[in-house]
Amino acid sequence: MEKSGSADSLGSKRSSSRQPSVDSLTSTNTTRSDRSAHLRSAVSPDAASARTDLGAEVLKESSRIAEGELQLLPRESVQDTASDVTYICPFLGAIRGSLTVTNYRLFFKCLDKDPAFVLDLPVGVISRVEKIGAISAQGEVSFGLVCKDIRNLRFAHRYQEGSLKKSIFELVNKFAFPVSNALRMFAFEYGQPFPENGWKVYDPLAEYKRQGLPNESWRITKANEHYDVCETYPATLVVPANIPDEELKRVAAFRAKGRIPVLSWIHPETQATVTRCSQPMVGVNGKRSKEDEKHLQAIMDANAQSHKLFIFDARPPVNAAANKMKGGGFESEDAYQNAELVFLDIHNIHVMRESLRKLKEVVYPNIEESHWLSNLESTHWLEHIKLILAGALRIADKVESGKTSVVVHCSDGWDRTAQLSSLAMLMLDGFYRTLRGFQVLVEKEWLSFGHRFQLRIGHGDRNHTDADRSPVFLQFIDCVWQMTRQFPAAFEFNEFFLITILDHLYSCLFGTFLCNSEQQRLEEDLPKRTVSLWSYINSQHEEFTNPLYVDYANHVLYPVVSMRHLELWVGYYIRWNPRMRPQEPLHQHYRELLAKRAELQRKVEELQREVAGRAAVAPPEKAGSPAGSPVQTCV
Amino acid sequence: MEHIRTPKVEQVKLQDRFSNKVIAGTLYLTATHLIFVESSSGSSNAQEIWILHHHIASVEKLSLTAGGCPLLIQCRNFRVVHFVIPRERDCHDVYSSLLRLLRPAYYEELYAFSYNPKQNDQQREEGWQLIDLNAEFERMGVPCDQWQLTDVNREYKVCETYPRDLYVPVTASKPIIVGSSKFRSKGRFPVLTYFYQEKKAAVCRCSQPLSGFSARCLEDEHLLQAISKANHNCRYVYVMDTRPKLNALANRAAGKGYENEDNYSNIRFQFVGIENIHVMRASLQKLLEVVGARFLSMTDYLQGLESSGWLRHIKAVVDAAIFLTKAVAVEGASVLVHCSDGWDRTAQVCSLGALLMDPYYRTIKGFMVLIEKDWISFGHKFADRCDQLDGDPKEVSPVFTQFLDCVWQVTEQFPQAFQFSEWFLIQIHEHVHSCQFGNFLGNSQREREELQLKEKTHSLWSYLLAEQQNYENPLYSPALAETQPILEPSTLPCHFKFWRNMYHQFDRTMHPRQSILKHILGLRESNRELERTANQLEAKFSVGGPPLHTSAPHRPRPKSLILTAPHGRKESEEESGNAEEEVPARSGAERTVEGSSANENGYIELQGPFSTKPEPQMVSLELGVARMTC
């Protein structure tokens, strides 16, 4: 699979590479776009010319730092440059160079080195800026930048205390945390036009229509149009047809944060559904709600194939029970006839945060050779990944093989529930495995259903110890990556797409992942005031497409969740290590093969047409001749 | 044969190791194989399993259960089968027959002597002539002005475990060689194994010196001096002792040991720290125990993998090979490699080092040459290490398996640098233990000559070359060898991975769902097909229209034990292949479930027909995903 193109010093030792050694986010794009531009001309010239739309090109140009020059984005402005800064690289040692801070990025370069060393990262990635120690004997101050993308960066620079000029790191501190400093996020400045508007990728009505909704059992309701049934839910909801809008409010009263059971996905044949909600407000006294019970009954009844309903509670049973003390809890099988409750043992956001923190210690900067595997084990990261995938697999299996509808919830239904429902849908529905389908999936299950990105990531917020932060979305992407490993031809997107999503999850360049809910996003008018990540991605989609992709649209994918098949995503977590050499460009090889095939196919078709034209009496073409048969869609 | 008491047992159940799947069938015991045939349930594609007796490492009778008497068979090619035989007497008969059959007392009883493919004598001889080691040394540029062929070992008098033809520095006279050989364990004196022409640097190999605490040998010192002088680029010679220092010290107490830097001029001595054969044997055993566990938690897996040490040992060998490569190709220094006897770790390091330095060894033919040179001719004790005859179990060790594993790790890091794919490595591994071909029988060239293997058995290499296309790596890019001749693998611990396709090659449930390799092979095949069609059509124009059907030179793929590319067949034959691989593009709304286990098998059972396995329609949910019933 492709590794991120994070170029490195080791690679550059090889004579062929002339690129400066870079170690940054945007540089990934650069190396990649260089290659793909290359490819494009090699593969099909007409495609290349058709694709010189300005937006994508401009962005690409602006992120091009091949000559070690800072290329500003639209409305990006240099705030300050300090010339005498040392970057203390954990791999290459101290590097002296100049540091530039803009309202979007931090740009460090050292041209004395050969190849030039460049570090280019959006300040949004920084979660903490800290001064380390006192001023050294040489009059230098050290600053550490803790990043959300697994890195820690350390700089030192000469600085006189009491001097009027502020340290450049105070500027970093200012622009990295616009929310805390009452500044505008760069996403609101950046106005890059793109040929496609990514905000239009997801249209709930179109998506439900694709699923065949509304139908006789399910209706689309506007009850939440003003977000007064549930403020963290989207405006458009799908509920059982026989539950009127008035009753939804009463159901909402019984569900945490008013997050009522609504449909996420419906099976095209069996009508079994995946529905999601939050925990019921059972409390210690075992409260019941007639409306809620009726609602779940209606969900079950909507599927004629099965007289059972599975409720998947993502939490460990102990946690679910503990929630009763806080008024929450889980459905009792007495109250909900024909329902079976299953706990999936997935831990909460705090456990996950801690697990990632440990993982970071194990993989960055250096990996301890002798205890690598047991250290990895001690983070439990892969175990959490396994539990999430296993849970999603059980849901998918229940819906596909058991033909039974399922209800998925955790506590609030916006973290683990989003992971489970979206992964199960990814297994069940090939549409979500396409480049655009995946965007729809993220827009729908994560963004519109109110995964609290602002809180979980802490965009622009100085408060790095906030207990609401958690790598829930990262885990989801990791699970997706694990699935792409097991089914390398079933996904239209590649690893670079997943990494790009994660990079821009933190960069705050695009508006996509800002705010906590659909309502907030509308209040902030994000579609008007910011650019969507999907605009950028869809404007140069071939960089993100997997050349091996075969349309497995009607296949259900069941990944193996055995340890032997799950592995650490080194291409993401260890990508900063220069010993992780970027892999040989395999995908280019595939692309060449595909292009060659397309060309041959054209040729064969032409020839055949000519044959047919010349000799109408000629014997019929050989059966199974590859040219005409649909086998050629690939395999 | 007189050992077989019960040639056929019916109603035997075969239990899958990792799932609850049970297949009923009949067990046959022949002179060479144990065969299990699934009782066909109406369908023509009954599963067959053929197990060569030589592949069996151990047979175990487990305690009686309600279903019958369980028989657990573990094979050297990592197949584990679990039969349940209804009657205990049958089970005991099979058990005791197998115990007699699996390890013969004489070479002549090995399968290679009875194996008879449809080949005439001439073809067989050609097979044995495929690889000519003198030509290989010529390819490296030897003999030259500094290195010559010596006839000192023509009669195996100086060292009986070395080959007849040896290359030594021109300045090393016979008395020096003979003197040095007396100072080296088993007489294995320093000889050339690889010559890096570009820098005139040599890789030499030998066994440990019999130095004890103070002994010296002027001839040996002289020979090292000669090796050093033969390379004008570098003033010193590296001496790599591939053992951990502690082991070398222990050997010193036994009158053996390592070179004293004070006695040898211009040497740089270096320990590398690869553990001995006993540690490796235990390590692999532990590894197999860990991954063989049916229910494996993440903690068990990762900690078990680590505590087995297998990946750490792999890394140690790769580290040593990298050291060797850097010394030779970067510094231009000559290197002398040894361990204790110079036939295990030395073979690993020399051959892996050469593989990293020389792109030729990364081709299919070149890899055969490499094995023939560094392993077979220099006397890696295949008979003892692979337990070909009933011998000392302490001599058995997966040294060669480990080498193949190292090569695989490198191929994973450099997917375009190798002409062969992992199936090639797995197939070689298969036949190192199968004793079906003569190449790996015996412990030394001398023994092989005495056994008259070239007259009585067949060569594996011609067999593999005949179906070369099954082992080709579609990503191989020969041009890369020009621009990047030397490979420098990363040794980050996360780059050393468990080789699932080797150690789980017979466990269907462990196979990947989709393999990239197969996709590319399919793509290439379809391109070839298209090209043919295009050519035919073009020809039709020029000639004036011969019918299309006549010129379809569809070469059938040779039947192979390992099947890697069923794609080509699929396009030409009816669409009978695996459901999973087909594109459901035309079948509108039909939903298919991916991820049930078996169909994406890159393998096929030994001797079985092409993939004719029934595809289980059930989904196996593994580990932690207890199956829930509605």
In short:
Chain A is α/β, with parallel strands linked by helices and 635 residues long.
- The portion of residues forming beta strands of chain B comes to 5-15%
Q: Walk across the major sheet of chain B and give the strand order.
A: 4-3-2-1-7-6-5
The total of beta strands of chain A comes to: 16
Largest beta-sheet characterization of chain A = 8 strands, mixed
User: Approximately how much helix is present in the residues of chain B?
Assistant: 25-40%
The helix count of chain B comes to 21
The protein's oligomeric status is heterodimer
Sequence stretches where pLDDT stays below 50 over 5 or more residues of chain B: 545-589, 596-630
Distance between the termini of chain B: 53 Å
Mean pLDDT rating of chain B: 84
Overall mean confidence score, pLDDT of chain A:
85
Q: Please state the overall shape of chain B, judged from the principal axes of the Cα atoms.
A: globular
What is the 3D shape of chain A? globular
Number of helical segments with 4 or more residues of chain A: 23
Could you say how many structural domains of chain B there are in total? 2
Largest protein interface, residues of each chain: A-B, 93 and 87 residues
Derived structural class of chain B? alpha+beta
Topology of helices and strands:
The complex is a heterodimer of chains A (635) and B (630).
Chain A (H helix, E strand, L loop, with lengths): L8 H5 L7 E2 L2 H19 L1 H6 L3 H9 L15 E12 L3 E10 L2 E6 L6 E6 L3 E7 L7 E8 L4 E7 L9 H9 L9 H4 L14 H7 L7 E4 L15 E4 L4 H10 L7 E5 L6 E5 L12 H12 L7 E5 L3 H6 L16 E5 L5 H15 L8 H8 L1 H20 L4 E5 L6 H13 L6 H14 L4 H6 L13 H15 L8 H13 L10 H6 L2 H4 L3 H6 L16 E3 L12 H4 L12 H29 L21
Parallel strand pairs in A: 1-5, 12-15, 13-14, 13-15
Antiparallel strand pairs in A: 2-3, 2-8, 3-4, 4-5, 6-7, 7-8, 9-10, 11-12
Helix pairs in contact in A: 11-12, 13-14, 13-17, 14-15, 14-17
Chain B lengths: L7 E8 L6 E8 L3 E6 L9 E5 L3 E6 L7 E7 L4 E6 L2 H15 L18 H9 L3 H8 L6 E4 L15 E4 L4 H9 L8 E6 L4 E6 L11 H12 L7 E5 L3 H9 L13 E5 L5 H16 L5 H11 L1 H21 L3 E5 L6 H13 L6 H14 L4 H4 L13 H15 L8 H13 L10 H6 L2 H4 L3 H7 L11 H6 L16 H4 L12 H28 L23 H6 L19 E3 L36
Parallel strand pairs in B: 11-14, 12-13, 12-14
Antiparallel strand pairs in B: 1-2, 1-7, 2-3, 3-4, 5-6, 6-7, 8-9, 10-11
Helix pairs in contact in B: 2-17, 4-5, 7-8, 9-10, 9-13, 10-11, 10-13, 13-14
